[in-house]
From TrEMBL:
Residues 105-301 form the Mur ligase central domain. It catalyses: D-alanyl-D-alanine + UDP-N-acetyl-alpha-D-muramoyl-L-alanyl-gamma-D-glutamyl-meso-2,6-diaminopimelate + ATP = UDP-N-acetyl-alpha-D-muramoyl-L-alanyl-gamma-D-glutamyl-meso-2,6-diaminopimeloyl-D-alanyl-D-alanine + ADP + phosphate + H(+). Keywords: ATP-binding, Cell cycle, Cell division, Cell shape, Cell wall biogenesis/degradation, Cytoplasm, Ligase, Nucleotide-binding, Peptidoglycan synthesis. This is UDP-N-acetylmuramoyl-tripeptide--D-alanyl-D-alanine ligase. GO terms for molecular function: ligase activity. Residues 323-444 form the Mur ligase C-terminal domain. Involved in cell wall formation. Catalyzes the final step in the synthesis of UDP-N-acetylmuramoyl-pentapeptide, the precursor of murein. Pathway: Cell wall biogenesis; peptidoglycan biosynthesis. It comes from Arsukibacterium indicum.
Length: 466
């Protein structure tokens, strides 16, 4: 973060400074990890009050605190009306002062991958700040903005949401030059109601883009016309996302992929075409769905100054994202694809398509998909049928809702209540098959990363059938 005085911060937040005018260059909302000399913002919610931990941050050497009422303690205080709003104001102020070229990304699936692709491309052009982990909500976004320094030429911000209005708020802080919607699908339906509610919420990202900015969206989505109507004042760049019919006529998308092939690891190679230029791209991430993600990232990177060579080399050299289609060789016969980070209907179907592209015996280990509302069981049934029609050989499910997927896939007998029982049944089965590929998928609440961990541990044991 840039260095600011407490008096400057109080002015930016329309607050009152009580105490000494220290300078701070770090901000934290977490009393457990705060560093000496930092500013502590005491967030307050229905079930917590950060001001309870002021003694802790004082003991760790915090320079000042932001609170919603004066406290009886010996530390500089900035008193504001709402500390949560103050956090957003401060993040927005730092971003406005530094003015890096900024790209905001949202969508039901693929937004983290697009964000990482963008960071890989743009790091060839200058210093990049990108969202870390799940810092994509009304708390994480301003905390990310506060990490900006004068050295950053680019900021790549991931914006998530589980209710209407959240992206409108975070976009108002970020004020991006370029905004991307990867897609809209059944996700967080408890907060959005239906997929149209999801599309409306994702479309909020265009509200904070300046009139000279750029909107990037699917060319072939059922919501494209709606999004176009929301951002008529912006330049629109469309990318192709439906590659199931490669024999059809060339797409009219502004940026598109031609001659897509998959290598033995499931990673796509294709010709990227943009305006009158084209370049051969080899992705380092498996899955045909990542072609669309690459096109969205390429369009945004070019919009802020990258060239096709930067796109080509950045995508080829991009490192994998933990829990997102990471390929692990358990042994010479068994391959594990760890896609356990999160799941919704769209991303699970993309994972099934990836699994189906592999030769040999294909097994899907599926945990519950969360926040799908009243039709959650129907969505899980849809996934079970999709996996069956894709030719997946075996579906094992874990959780509660996912049993509906196993019922539609293969009747009873492939649903489990514990990881232990699932793996006890799985491992003897796969050792009798040749060329096995396992794919692990589920929402965060399903904790399917523990299944990945169990598989790795079992296969490291000498007595394991792996």
């Amino acid at each position: 973060m840039i260095t600011l005085s407490c008096a400057e911060i109080a002015s930016l937040l329309n607050g009152q400074l009580i105490g000494d005018n220290h300078s701070v260059s770090d901000v934290s909302t977490d009393s457990r990890t705060i560093s000496a000399g930092a500013l502590f913002i005491a967030l307050k919610g229905p079930n917590f009050d950060g001001s309870r931990f002021v003694a802790d941050v004082m003991a760790k050497g915090a320079a000042a605190i932001v609170v919603d009422r004066p406290l009886d303690c010996d530390i500089s205080q900035i008193v504001v009306a709402d500390t949560r709003v103050a956090l957003g104001q401060l993040g927005a102020a730092v971003k406005a002062r530094l003015q890096p070229k900024t790209i905001a990304v949202t969508g039901s699936a693929g937004k983290t991958t697009v964000k990482e692709m963008l960071a890989a491309i743009l790091c060839r052009c200058g210093q990049v700040l990108a969202t870390q982990g799940n810092f994509n909500n009304d708390i994480g976004v301003p905390l990310t903005l506060l990490r900006l320094t004068a050295e950053h030429q680019f900021a790549v911000m991931e914006l998530g949401a589980n209710h209407a209005g959240e992206i409108a708020y975070t976009t108002s802080l970020v004020k991006p030059d370029v905004a991307i919607i990867t897609n809209a699908a059944a996700s967080h339906l408890e907060g959005f109601g239906d997929t149209y509610g999801v599309a409306r919420a994702k479309g909020e990202i265009f509200s904070g883009v300046a009139d000279s900015g750029i909107a990037i969206m699917q060319h072939d989505s059922e919501f494209t016309d709606y999004w176009r109507n929301r951002c008529k004042r912006l330049k629109i760049i469309s990318f192709e996302s439906d590659f199931k019919n490669d024999s059809r006529e060339a797409s009219s998308a502004d940026i598109r992929a031609e001659r897509i092939t998959l290598n033995s690891q499931g990673c796509a190679r294709f010709t990227l075409v943009y305006q009158n230029e084209q370049v051969l791209v080899q992705l380092s991430l498996p899955g045909k769905h990542n072609v669309a993600n690459a096109l969205a990232a390429a369009a945004a990177a070019i919009a802020v100054g990258a060239n096709l060579s930067d796109v080509q080399l950045g995508l080829a050299q991009m490192a994998g994202v933990k829990g997102r289609t990471n390929i692990i060789e358990l042994n010479k016969n068994i391959k594990l694809i760890d896609d356990s980070y999160n799941a919704n209907v769209e991303s699970v179907k993309a994972a099934i398509d990836l699994l189906a592209s592999y030769q040999g015996y294909r097994v899907l280990l599926l945990g519950d998909m969360a926040e799908l509302g009243a039709n959650a069981r129907l969505y899980h049934e849809e996934i079970g049928l999709y996996a069956k029609e894709a030719g997946i050989n075996l579906l094992f499910t874990l959780g509660v809702l996912s049993q509906s997927a196993s019922d539609l896939f293969n009747g009873q007998g492939s649903h489990f209540s514990s990881r232990q029982s699932m793996l006890d049944r799985l491992l003897p089965l796969i050792t009798t098959q040749q060329n096995v590929t396992l794919l692990v998928k589920g929402s965060r609440s399903a904790k399917m990363e523990l299944v990945v961990q169990d598989l790795l541990e079992r296969c490291q044991q000498e007595s394991s059938p792996c």
